[in-house]
Amino acid sequence: MSTDNNPKSCCTPTSVREASTPVKAPLVYTPGLAPSRTTIPLPGGTFLMGTNYERGFPADGEGPVRSVSLSAFDIDTYPVTNADFAAFIAATNHRTEAEVFGWSFVFWSHIPEERFEEVVEDTVAMTPWWCKVPGATWDHPEGPGSDVKDRQNHPVVHVSWSDAAAYAAWAGRLLPTEAQWEYAARGGLERKLYPWGDELTPKGKHLCNIWQGQFPRQDTAEDGYAGSCPVDSFPPNGYGLYSVTGNVWEWCADWFGTTFSTSQDPVGPPAGEAKVMKGGSFLCHASYCNRYRVAARTSNTPDSSASNIGFRCVGKANPKIV
């Protein structure tokens, strides 16, 4: 197993994988067969995207702040859950790329200590807290012997961008563009760091699921969770969206780039090597990766998967991106 030297792999490691079984062409799903999910209609309009935050990551392309206009669209109230994804699997027999490749990345402290040597095949050289675990999949998130029976309302993880796009196609929807995701995540607020304002814990109250303690050794779970949490664990933003920061990263439709030229319904570069991810995860911490801000962004290859990557979908006016 090998991984690249992506400096953002603290957030999500990038896979360089060979399939354990031949990779088949993507299945084509009949849209509109998914169970109904709660969505939020947004009228679109113009907003200020990006940030010039001094503690941000300019190399990620977080700035400059720019005016962006969007057509109307609707977006899932919650990230896609394990229960939602189970319905997709049952209806389509889709095999996730973690299953096809035979492994996925799991954060080290979520693997039972007594089973660590048994289930971990390798670790990432520069970020050894990421473990290569054969058999880690969406329904076995810590590898063989684990399951999601008690996590039906948690966001599905170990899904690649390609898996997320396949689910969206089956549901008759699409993945959000980065601009749509950020517009929705801001909840109507302008130039704020978080969906609720500029203070991470107003009046000492935790409003998202991120890391507390000393990363990567000790997560005190002061927010109530070490690992993912139910998608409705924290209050929604001003538009009614839940879990838009922290918990798990969310795939976007766009290819990743750091230059921006289109102000009306931007869709990112026409091609690339990695897809945009937004929102941060339960592993983000101010000392190492404060990418739980709404303007923060990272990327990963479309076939990568890990225990902190999920997604949500949009509909209506979303441009088609392939």
From TrEMBL:
Segments forming domain Sulfatase-modifying factor enzyme-like: 37-314
Lineage: superkingdom: Bacteria
GO molecular function annotation: formylglycine-generating oxidase activity
Pfam families in alphabetical order: FGE-sulfatase
Protein name: Formylglycine-generating enzyme required for sulfatase activity
Lineage: Bacteria, Pseudomonadati, Acidobacteriota, Terriglobia, Terriglobales
